[in-house]
Amino acid sequence: RSYSLNGMMGVNSSDASNSVHPGILENRKFTDIRNPSASQASFFLDEDASCIDDGYFAVDSGQSANWRNVIASRHGKGGMLSFADGHAQLWRWLEPGTDKLKGLNAIAPRNDRDLLRLKESTYAPGTFK
Prior knowledge:
This protein is mainly beta. The chain starts with a strand and ends in a 9-residue tail after the last helix. The protein has one helix and seven strands, in the order βββββββα. The protein has one helix at residues 113-120; strands at 3-6, 42-46, 56-57, 66-67, 78-83, 88-92, 106-107. The strands form two sheets. Strands 3-1-2-5-6 form a five-stranded mixed beta sheet, with no helix packed on it. Strands 4-7 form a two-stranded antiparallel sheet.
């Protein structure tokens, strides 16, 4: 298994106090997926084998430059994601080192455009840093 569910989908904690997205409640039903919209909200992500641990793809909502989990780069410097509306996309990486990231809490370059794009597909504008 290499596909993991975006941590903002489904019930993942008893409250919104977890360390991945403190104060932000998950999308518990499909009707909760509004911002980003279902066509922009990442759902399943192909996770790199070096960080497969629990089926939960964590995307930190804070200012951390870490990728809590890393997307697999199996397709020529890109990774596969599916979205809440059912479509899938191959995202080509914008940063030269994204395809080389490995393990849990991999450190990304400052102002990582790939990590920002992932945060935008996970959280509503203004809810992440």
